[in-house]
Amino acid sequence: xxxxxxxxxxxxxxxxxxxxxxxxxxxxxxxxxxxxxxxxxxxxxxxxxxxxxxxxxxxxxxxxxxxxxxxxxxxxxxxxxxxxxxxxxxxxxxxxxxxxxxxxxxxxxxxxxxxxxxxxxxxxxxxxxxxxxxxxxxxxxxxxxxxxxxxxxxxxxxxxxxxxxxxxxxxxxxxxxxxxxxxxxxxxxxxxxxxxxxxxxxxxxxxxxxxxxxxxxxxxxxxxxxxxxxxxxxxxxxxxxxxxxxxxxxxxxxxxxxxxxxxxxxxxxxxxxxxxxxxxxxxxxxxxxxxxxxxxxxxxxxxxxxxxxxxxxxxxxxxxxxxxxxxxxxxxxxxxxxxxxxxxxxxxxxxxxxxxxxxxxxxxxxxxxxxxxxxxxxxxxxxxxxxxxxxxxxxxxxxxxxxxxxxxxxxxxxxxxxxxxxxxxxxxxxxxxxxxxxxxxxxxxxxxxxxxxxxxxxxxxxxxxxxxxxxxxxxxxxx
Length: 479
Ligand SMILES: Nc1ncnc2c1ncn2[C@@H]1O[C@H](COP(=O)(O)OP(=O)(O)OP(=O)(O)O)[C@@H](O)[C@H]1O
Ligand SMILES: [Mg+2]
Description:
By secondary structure, the protein is an alpha/beta fold. The protein is 25% helix and 24% strand. It has helices at residues 51-56, 64-69, 93-99, 119-130, 145-154, 170-180, 205-222, 295-298, 345-359, 384-395, 422-431, 462-470, and strands at 5-9, 15-16, 32-36, 108-113, 136-140, 163-166, 184-188, 225-231, 250-255, 262-270, 278-284, 287-290, 308-315, 318-330, 338-341, 366-372, 404-406, 409-410, 416-417, 436-440, 455-459. The strands form five sheets. A nine-stranded mixed sheet has the order 6-5-7-8-4-9-10-11-12, with helices on both faces. A four-stranded mixed sheet has the order 13-14-16-15. Strands 2-1-3 form a three-stranded antiparallel sheet. Helix 6 (170-180) packs parallel to helix 7, helix 9 packs across helix 10 (384-395) and helix 10 (384-395) crosses helix 12 (462-470). The longest helix has 18 residues, at 205-222. Residues 40-68 and 235-241 have low confidence and may be disordered. Bound molecules: adenosine-5'-triphosphate and magnesium ion (MG). Adenosine-5'-triphosphate is lined by residues 113, 115-121, 142, 154, 231, 283, 285.
């Protein structure tokens, strides 16, 4: 079995036998990636999927070599066998929600996140919960078995039948997967695995891709759900999960402020469920705890203060009530400072320009700082009205009437635009005890809104909305 490598340019596809920093064919830098040229049928550990297993493969693509060796005819879509999608509960409602209802057998899920954010903790806790009902293998390629056990003890691990393997050699991991045939296997992390047939270092693009492809083949064949941990790195030397995104069925990212205790889990891609679902956890000393009522996390103090406004943001099918804080103060710079945390700075610039133009507020002479409570990132324009209100409230030193939420997108002409999922947002606000909502005119609430115990104040423009929210006309007293 000859071990020969080929370097393929990822930009133009040119192949060389030698590594160059720059592709001789197209001239792009750092685009050559090592690939093995051993025929996969000579490798004992990369067997070809059987026809039966392939038919049952849960939505994943087979390797190109598999298709080459097993010529198949096309068939009518009506004759293709159907198999109901069974899902394994991960033991955590928040994780299941992001996965679209649970883990699908034979699927590959990549969990990415910054170092130290809690990926191993999340997956070990979930592995422990799943091991009560299924055979679960935890492959630790980064930490020794003793280290994993220490963590398992700290997280309150008890008498489950969790199997542990501390190994970095891909060959041995594949063998263990084949002999154990677990329902779920966790690989922590894919960057630490090493395929001995490749000359490049663990974590390089070629290694990560080869290891993931070999794991994917075996997972599809024996219906093992695979959870892969991937590191997010900025340097080009370590391959980030980007390389794997096309290969896997779902990509989850685990994020959060390292200085705050809550962690957010999102689906970036999901072949078996909706993306942009959000799972919320809190890191405690005994591990990650689910936060089933996250709005409480993103709401500030009960006492309203000048410059705060409450909005309802939507993340997937979940509405979150979030507090915004603005600080507007006289600038001592030639160009005023604008700093936004949790909201895009361009969005803030745009809202400030609308307020300046349509309400005549001289905001270009003021610094403006804006922050979203709890470190949440709010991307949707439905937050615009909340931002505008917080800014004006801080500028005029006004306090919002208690129990008011604001929802609406701001047009460049100062008009308020309707937003999606308004009923969902209002329900969440009402559930948390809010009494009034300022919303865009003509939002067209459906029958669901009938049961929502909330006073709706409709506004056509930002000026009208501010009068409703703050009780005074901010444009009256032009500075
Ligand atoms: N003894 C401990 N007591 C309390 N919390 C701890 C303890 N050890 C670790 N933690 C928490 O767990 C976090 C690390 O979690 P974990 O190891 O799961 O992260 P990770 O994403 O897997 O990191 P890496 O990328 O290094 O593998 C720490 O940042 C800390 O918040
Ligand atoms: Mg880890």
